[in-house]
Design goal:
Length: 238
């Protein structure tokens, strides 16, 4: 199964306005991706449209966001249940500094439906750091029914290595790297890649083959069972 657990939409201020959930799903399907996550910066507001489009395309949706911690480390917070993801997204919005967003200077932050119609423009700037530390985010996400993956740990900005100098121990389901193996110690954590797509041409550029027992294996229907299954599959990437 081809998977990609790091993608942005037009909700992220640094992403292209062309990156609607519809465009993301269409391009991912065309590239053979069957498990796809939407992870906008500090928000899950485009996940409802994403869910509908994924099911139409027979893609397994993973809902989430890319949190920016107090230390400015990016962490993927992933859920298999839409309601849990939306509740967590609402919580993160309350942890943002109340900086009014200026789209002319910082880019658009639009919530859209499955037909690419704009429903809302988010008021606070989503690229800010949350009032939440690296050591706090893992337990918080797990208690909300999700899992956590530090993003692009080997990137020279907004990563564990760039901000802290090392990989912090935590309840990480995996570590996302730009290159495998990365040039840094990663302990025994599973390693994956992710596209971190902000533009249409980025979709699928660093997707990965999820380790499953057989190619005929199906993903569980129930969200909690699906989360456990996904964690188990990621655990094989060592």
């Amino acid at each position: 199964m081809r998977a990609d657990l790091h993608n942005h939409s037009c909700l992220s201020p640094c992403a292209s306005l062309e990156m609607s959930p519809r465009r993301l799903v269409i391009e991912a399907s065309r590239k053979g991706i069957t498990i796809l996550a939407l992870t906008d910066h500090n928000s899950t507001k485009n996940c409802p449209a994403f869910e509908k489009l994924c099911y139409e395309a027979k893609i397994v949706p993973i809902f989430g966001l890319e949190a920016c911690t107090r230390e400015e480390v990016h962490i993927l917070c992933l859920f298999t249940d839409l309601d849990a993801a939306m509740n967590f997204g609402d919580h993160c919005y309350r942890l943002l500094p109340p900086i009014p967003h200026n789209p002319e200077q910082l880019g658009d932050q639009v919530v859209v439906n499955e037909d690419e119609e704009i429903l809302e423009e988010v008021g606070y700037y989503l690229g800010s750091a949350l009032d939440l530390g690296v050591d706090e985010i893992g337990p918080l996400v797990e208690s909300a029914g999700g899992m956590v993956i530090p993003a692009h740990i080997d990137r020279p900005a907004f990563s564990m290595i760039s901000q802290l100098g090392f990989v912090v121990d935590g309840p990480w389901a995996a570590l996302e790297c730009i290159r495998i193996p990365p040039a840094y110690p990663t302990g025994s954590y599973p390693l994956i890649t992710g596209s971190d797509a902000h533009y249409v041409e980025h979709i699928g550029r660093r997707s990965f083959e999820l380790a499953v027992r057989t190619q005929e294996e199906k993903t569980p229907d129930k969200p909690d069972e699906r989360l456990a299954w996904l964690k188990a599959c990621l655990g094989s990437h060592k």
